[in-house]
Every structure is written in structure tokens, then in C-alpha cells.
Amino acid sequence: MILTGYRSIVLANPAKLSVRNNSLAIDNGEVSLIPLEDIRCLMLENRQITLSSALLSRLAGEGIAVYTCADNHLPCSVFTPVNCHSRQLKQLRLQLKQTQPKLKRLWQETVKAKIENQAKCLELLGREGKEDLLRLLPLIRSGDSTNVEGRAAARYFKALFGKDFSRDGEHPVNGALNYGYAIFRGLVARTLTVYGFEPCLGIHHESELNNFNLADDLIEPFRPVVDMYAAQNLIDITQLGTAEKAALLNLLNTEMLSGGEKHGAAYAAERLVMSLAACFSGHKNSIILPKLTGLRRHDYE
Length: 301
Description:
Number of domains: 2
Number of strands: 12
CATH topology of the largest domain: Four Helix Bundle (Hemerythrin (Met), subunit A)
Radius of gyration: 19 Å
Structural class: alpha/beta
Mean pLDDT: 88
Shape: globular
CATH architecture of the largest domain: Up-down Bundle
Distance between the termini: 26 Å
Helix content: 40-55%
CATH class of the largest domain: Mainly Alpha
């Protein structure tokens, strides 16, 4: 078992899980107890971990995201709570009534925030290419109709990992990126569900085969957190070990600017979802998008 920062747990060895005295009991020969209220997410990496449906129900009731991994050890599913929001139907109707111009404007804002964070990532790592990315910002139109996001990504990843790097390639760092992205995707999906959103209804992504289109929209500005960690620490890895996976999970605690305030990335994601709800209801005109500041861990006092 590895504890990674604030309420994030990686279980890499066989264990039996249960609830005891409002705590998660982890039995792998010795029993460890962790208060449920202290847990944000639980990564079940080992295929020999056993738990009951009663425990899953309790974890869902606590709003805890539970990840499982496939044979390749990458996260393949996340269990998210349902019926946690008191006005589920109201929230769904709000999602369905949003106009295309409004959704396209929100996507424009999201793409802008992503590229700004990519430029900041290059700056913080001392890589060239920041100004090249920033020059693309005025070109982002409503809905990013000219795909500035894709043009920025092509330049960004080569500046970050080298001119021969490709996201479609076999480079081991791609596994690290996929793992980190999946963690943020699962967390955002869980948060959307808690706030009554239907995650398959995106503001930009609209695949009929994707149950998490909206999560895939909202994680975009968070991706450079994973990119920066991978470029700084994992560029020479040959395989992704348990320690590296735990460190990627711990990125949920990375300090980011959220609405001018410093928060951990996980809470910045929650503030983003809350602001989206306010935007959909007409109480706000824009959403609170996170800004990358580095990889410093945020500690709440």
C-alpha cells in the first residue's frame, strides 16, 4: 500500500478490503485502517484485491473515486456515485438547454487555458517554444473551429520531449502520460456526477461511444500538470513502476491557481465543475479554469 498525499491510496499488492468503524480496513496480513472521510480516491492496481458490493456502496456514498486497472496496469474504469445530487433532473435539463454558441465559447476558453498552461510548462522547464504557443492564442475562435488546439499540441510535445517524440509512438513516457490523464479524467468524472451532471454530454467532445465526453472536455487544462511531471522525472523510464504510478496519483495535490486562489488540483477541478454549474444556470458568464504554477504540493492549513 502506498499513501500519496491528501486522501489518495494506491493498492499494489493483494488485499481484502472492508469497512470498520467508519474506516477503510485494508487486510494484507496486517490490518490498516484509514478514515473514509480522509480518502479522495482509491487505486486498485492488483487483480487479487477483493471487496464487497457493500463496501463499494459505502465508498460511493462518501464520494470516493475507485479506479481499477486492466492487464496493462493502466486505469480502465472508475466507479462514480450516482443520485448524489438533490436536483439531478434539473441539472440534466440545464445541460440539454445550453445553446451551441455558449458551448462553443466555453470550449474556446478551455482551449485557451490549456495552451496557456502548456506554454507555462515549457517556461518552467526551461524549454523553448513558449512564445510560439502564446502567439496562437489570438487565433482561437469560437469552438476552436480552426483546431488551434491540435496545432499547439504538435509543437508542444516536440518542444517538451524532443523532435522525434509522438503521442502515437511506443515511447515509455506515453504510458505515464496515459496513466496520469486517466487519473484526472476519473476524478473529474466523479466530481461531475456528484454535482448532478451527465458526463456523456460534453461541451465539445460528442462521441456516442464515450460516456465521459464532458470529463474529457474539462481535463484539458490539467494535462500539462502530468506533462510537466513526466518531462521532469520520467523521460528516461523503461517501464512504469508502482512508485511512479503513486507519484502520478499524487499530482492531484499539485498546487494550481483557481480563480486567483491557490488550491490543490483536485479542488481546482471541483471549483471548475461548480463554476460550470453556475454558468449553465445563468449565474456566471465564464468558468474557473486552472492555471499551472509548477509541481509544488498544496497543503491546506
